[in-house]
Amino acid sequence: MAIGYAEQVHHHAPPRKPAAWPHQVGVIPPRALSFQHRAEVDQLRTAADGGGTAVLTGTGGVGKTQLAADHARNAWDNGSVDVLVWITASSRSEITDGYAQAGVEVLGADPTDPERAAREFLAWLEPKATLKPCRWLVVLDDLAAPADLRDLWPPSSPRGRTLVTSRRRDAALTGAGRCLVRVGLFRPWESAAYLTEMLAAHGRAEPADQINGLATDLGHLPLALAQAAAYVIDATLACADYRQLLADRMRKLADLLPEPGTLPDDQATTVAATWSLSIERADQLRPAGLARPMLQLAAMLDPNGIPSTVLASPPVLTYLAEFRIGASLGQTHTQQVTGQDAVGALSALQRLNLIEHSPNVPHRAVQVHQLIQRAARDAMPAADRDVAGIAAATALIAAWPETERDTALAQALRANTEALTRHAEDSLYQLGDFDDELDGVHPVLFRTGESLGEAGQIDAAIKHMQHVLDTAGAHLGRDHADTLHAAHDLAHWLGESGDFAGAASAYKRLLKQETRALGCKHTTTLDTGVSLAYWLMKSGDAVGAASTYKRLLKPMTQARGPDHPHVLNLRHNLAWCQGEAGDAVGAAAALERLLEQELQVLGSEDPLTLNTLGALARWRGEVGDHAGAVAALESVVDQKLRVIGPDHPDTLSARHSLGRWRAIAGDIAGATADLENLLVDRLRVLGPDHPHTFATRSNLANLRGRAGDPVGAAEATAELLGQMLRVLGADHPHTVRTRDALAYWRTKAVKDPAAQQSTD
Q: Could you give the CA distance from residue 662 to residue 659 in angstroms, rounded to a whole number?
């Protein structure tokens, strides 16, 4: 009806009778097929039973809505609520509309004034002694922004509960009686159970290893598991076949999921699209426009952890400045990006649960789900992916310390390089396509090979450098400088593996190729000649090595000057050859002259100077000054500990030499103590399978025998031999020497009456 007064008309809806309790407002989403009871179910129940507000937070696709729906449905079914309100909270207007609808249905409020109806409903939720108590549950699903709930949070009530689901984890969602419940991925057994039940519901059975493998491939993300299962069922694919398609990096994730109209469980968006809105919202947070490019970089790296120093490096800041919203490819943005901006971009991504940012774990500070990474890469044009890949590689190099004192950091950097190579390998070999000033192989690939070798993963270093050599040859040609560089590094690690003759042969071939391509006086050719001489010396040909060093000394000095480190290193090795050929006195004299020059040119703390000090101690010891050798090596160890750190390979090698010469000087107990302490550190830093770890164990076994325990020496050597056979093989020189040592100590144990008596 309408009542008219002068020049205005008020319309009033007829009063509506309030609904009887129990009453539900809004529609609870249907239960997903094969819904899994998860630990979060119990966490949510505990939080909700405590009263106040529970906030379910997690990235898109982890099942927050399903958990909330399960909780609401159980509360309704068991009669623990009188009024249940389910509201989609994607915007402030939707929240207000939901409250208004509740006001209309529960209170009989005027539907023509939704704002007033909403306020009336919120006021009604406040506990009042004069009204009949009402047990209520309000669910605000998919809250887009905490600001949308300003002045709209349901009140605290002893008989009322609020449940919020959101991709956000802002501070505004905590406090004031609110309990944050993190919703993560399925646990492996939950993933396996879900996939098994889904397939079984359609008459399908798959091997357990393929079920588990598919769950791992999908990162145990519930939404991805549901959609992948639907795709497998609809396409009548075996899990193994689907996994092959998923592993094909040329295929986009969207092509391996059901079309939007055929999604399971009334899902609205595919996994490939589920994070696009989150990325857009993160990009709008301060510093605006940086979240998306930061995620693009993170998408190129290791999902299990990216060091904080990588994503705050100058190359990353440059990338972020060039790829703000509104900047086109290659267009330099005038506004600089600071390290604080980079941290802000990571914070924005974390607030939307797109990443996990843990600054207190610096080596693995940023973690990203592998499917979020793939979706981010899929959304980038190919040229942008290549640029992001190069920027990520340059950031890794910028964060990579010249001396690897932190083994955990080195391991993380190698893992990130491996991930980057999977996603953008071609761009790392064709730098000239993106920058006219660049050409060849990105330095991060060489640094990775070096790092693997220094960490004792010699076989991995060889495999890595062989791949770089093959790929560089295919992209750049056999005679390109970086292809030759890869061949040089490969030969080096062959030698470090114990294949001295193989290394010498590889360097001979490389020397012939470089002489043809570059000329015999090119510094690269000369360096290869020096490496050839070194491995000739290691293989036992001291005379041939000395001859090669002498032939190279003059042209190397002419090319680089007498004080160049390469020239000084050549003279060091030449003196070493002199000693290996039997002239220990001449070797010591040559090293004394070299040391004097290095002290003047490089200083007392330079690694070359310290190496010369160690070599001089060795040859003085060979002359007979054992005590002098020990004293000199003690000084070398102290300086290396201070200059390059306790975990550097050169420091560990110097400690090994000190233990050896202490034993030669007759201090078996002191040498044993030195090497036992060294073994602990080598096991920690290099691992049990490193050749240097084997060497320390071998020397300790020998010291045990020299101390009068040939049986113990034989037992320790036998254990070592078994490990060397597994790691190095039967024909490796180190294995052969260990087998000879075992025979020696077993013979000694049999001949020694005291030892024999101890075994009876």
A: 5
